[in-house]
Amino acid sequence: MPLSTGPSAPTYGALLLRGLLAGLVAGLLAGLFAFTFGEPKVDAAIAVEEAASQAALPAESSAAQEEPLVSRDGQKGGLFLATGLYGIALGGIFATGYTLLRRRLRTPSDVRAAWSLAGAALLGIVGIPYVKYPPNPPAVGDPGTINQRTISYLAIVVIGLVAVWAAVVAQRTQPTEWRRGAAAVLGFVVVVVIGYALLPNINEVPSTFPPDLLWSFRLTSLGTQVVLWTVLGLAFGALVARTPAPRPETVAAA
């Protein structure tokens, strides 16, 4: 008598392949968003920097300035390559995290699990760091503090992920729905407030830099990240939902 086994979860290799593909699509669309809305802001910021530099230097020094190693047109063309590769790497990490955390997400829907994971990552990796250390245009910042800024930014990314984890753990300790929601918000806010208080404030934007240009760049940068994570979550969820069910294995009865 033939016996049929139940459907099994897709292998890590299958999920990784879907993550890489979803990451590539997300990276290219994020690159398109950054090219359309972000590059004009970068051009304007560079023009502000060049005008300030030429005003501060003597005429002969200004005329002797070296050409950049990569032209602006080359940088704009390389933007899609950079975001595409970044998206592929991020998709691989996302698929690995999904594989490790799938059973702990406590939902029977693979699509909902993928969306939840992408939303949590967007909040912890992008949202929390953005409020503490909003991005600045390439022409803004002190090169002498780059190590401090890098370490501080990595620290706030870790704190953002811990805050999301604390919210999930806190809400699972409560028996009723409203108490679970309150516990999640409380756990999240406590970790974020402590993290913000411990890390240094960094503000190196010159007072003469146009504030409207600064915030236009920051909003565009945030929009690029939102596009990246949203498309990654949606695409990965769609690819997981289209995973073919394993064929029943027929075992000959003894």
Automatic annotation (TrEMBL):
InterPro entries: CbtA_put. It comes from the Bacteria. Keywords: Membrane, Transmembrane, Transmembrane helix. The chain crosses the membrane at residues 12-35, 79-101, 113-131, 151-170, 182-199, 219-241. This is Putative cobalt transporter CbtA. It comes from Paractinoplanes abujensis.
